[in-house]
Amino acid sequence: MIAIIDFGSQYTMLISRKVKELGVKSRIFPAGCSYNFKNLKIQGIILSGSPSSVSKNNRLKADRELFYSGIPVLGICYGMQAMVDCCGGRVGKGIKREYGKSILKIIGKSPLLEGVEQESNVWMSHYDRVLKIPQGFRIIASTSDLEAAAIEKRNKKLYGVQFHPEVTHSACGNRILSNFVFNICRAEKDWDLGDWIDDAVDKIKEEVKGGKVIMALSGGVDSSVVCALLSRALKEQFYPFFVDHGLMRKKDIERINKVFLDKLDIAVTILNERERFFKKLKGVSDPEDKRKIIGNEFIKVFVKAAEKIKGATHLAQGTIFPDIIESAGTGNGSAKIKSHHNVGGLPEKLDLKLLEPLKELYKDEVRNIGIKMGLPEELIKQHPFPGPGLGVRIMGPVDSKKAKILNKADAILEQELKENSLYYGLWQAFCVFLPVKTVGVMGDARTYENVIALRCVKSTDAMTASWADLPHGALERVSTRIVNEVEGINRVVLDITNKPPGTIEWE
Ligand code: XMP
């Protein structure tokens, strides 16, 4: 196993993930604690970057023992500076901050740089720099701005790089990590997702012991995978609920029955609260008011159901790593970027311990685990669906009739995209109900009905998105089918707005 010491970098998880992608187990340890790595069978240690500065008094220091244990160490960015600081070198402010692409030039042969091009692009993000390397170290690579871009003390197996090998912009990054993990640490490829699942199940059992866990299953990828994991770990000690607020798609509810109840034998309690939500939403057209009502009612319904589970000890959530990093950092000082809807809310209301078994994983890892646990590909590869559901896709006041119309139109769009192999190439594709009536003509008769807008976008992270230029034949088929098959709709329009300036959802 490779230990990663976390000094609070946004990239700590990424380092861990890259090591796992090489087929080697890795575990993150907070900086500032002493560990007996030899007892833990650690074969190598990677020191992460940090938003902090080695020259600050309150800096997180590397444990000196690390560099004398005989276990190979690779310091990345701040990690290299912490190593230099600890081993008697000098770190100080540079003249200018180096951020972005630099060209790395190899100036000395090293097992760390084996197979790396003489010159290659690397990605830098630092202000401080190594001014004097410690005794016994030597510089093995430089950039035009930075002499000590990579250093080594080969006989003690200590290595440092100022750039970030874990990001894809560093062309030689994978090679350097692989050199460190396999050639220097002599680790073996023996990690796979099966191990992760077994470990996670053991950890959940250990954490929950004789307690009871409740959760709100949304039917999305993350909560479905958590549900499968908890059910495997806890069986009858696990109580998943599905709140049917009437604004889910038909297939979401069918899937709960077909996949969770029938196939996986997980007893999900479906709370049919459609009437309650429609009553509360009656006549409300402001998007924020609608969101608030749906969110508050959801919490009330769930809390009421949860309170019936006497002796509940934990609340499970499908939080994944990007949710945490965007909202609060890894707990070791990484900078807060934005708040996230998955974190907070319910736990305070219920006074239960939070269980977040996916919180160290990225989305594609969660998907792979879901497939390995037997969840259907159709569920695992589904497009994101917002918590307030169709409530934010029906413009103006929401009611069950409009929800039914939207549901039908949406099912047609999805079916056509899947049949034309277009669905999985898109980030999201859905219909929006417009409370606008337009005139049409059907079978010689005049119609006066509502409009459906098609919203199909490409994106990698939902922060930005571009409208998808779908084949006109497919669009025409969707439009024809919606107008012919969905009563109440006589016109279909296409949204061709990018994000920004538009958002993906209309409300
Ligand atoms: P926007 O509309 O802001 O959406 O471009 C970005 C992504 O977030 C999804 N979304 C939500 N997801 N609860 C969720 O779980 C919500 O309230 C919510 N609002 C938007 C949206 O579908 C898109 O993928």
Keywords:
507 residues, alpha/beta, single chain, Rossmann fold, GMP Synthetase, Chain A, domain 3, nine-stranded mixed beta sheet, globular, five-stranded parallel beta sheet, 3 domains, binds xanthosine-5'-monophosphate, 14 helices
Outline of this structure?
By secondary structure, the protein is of the alpha/beta class. Helices cover 32% and strands 24% of the residues.
Helix/strand layout:
Blueprint: E1 2-6, H1 12-21, E2 26-30, E3 44-47, E4 73-76, H2 78-86, E5 90-106, E6 119-132, E7 138-142, E8 150-153, E9 158-161, H3 173-184, H4 193-208, E10 212-216, H5 221-234, E11 238-244, H6 250-263, E12 269-272, H7 274-281, H8 287-307, E13 312-316, H9 321-327, H10 346-350, E14 353-355, H11 363-372, H12 377-380, H13 400-419, E15 428-442, E16 445-458, E17 466-467, H14 472-485, E18 489-494
Parallel strand pairs: 1-2, 1-3, 3-4, 4-9, 10-11, 10-13, 11-12, 13-14, 16-18
Antiparallel strand pairs: 5-6, 5-7, 7-8, 8-9, 15-16, 16-17
Helix pairs in contact: 4-5, 4-11, 5-11, 7-8, 13-14
Xanthosine-5'-monophosphate is lined by residues 341, 384, 386-388, 428, 462, 499, 503-505.
Mean pLDDT: 91
Q: For this structure, what is the CATH class of the largest domain? A: Alpha Beta
Q: Biggest sheet: strands, sense, closure? A: 9 strands, mixed
Rg calculated over all Cα atoms: 27 Å
Strand content range: 15-25%
- Which class best fits the helix and strand makeup? alpha/beta
Fourth CATH level, the homologous superfamily of the largest domain: HUPs
Number of domains: 3
State the end-to-end distance: 47 Å
Low-pLDDT regions: 328-344
- Provide the CATH architecture of the largest domain: 3-Layer(aba) Sandwich
CATH fold-level label of the largest domain? Rossmann fold
Total number of beta strands: 18
Q: Helical segment tally?
A: 14
Q: Give the helix proportion (percent range).
A: 25-40%
The rough form would be described as globular
Strand order of the largest sheet: 2-1-3-4-9-8-7-5-6
Listed once per kind, the bound small molecules are: xanthosine-5'-monophosphate
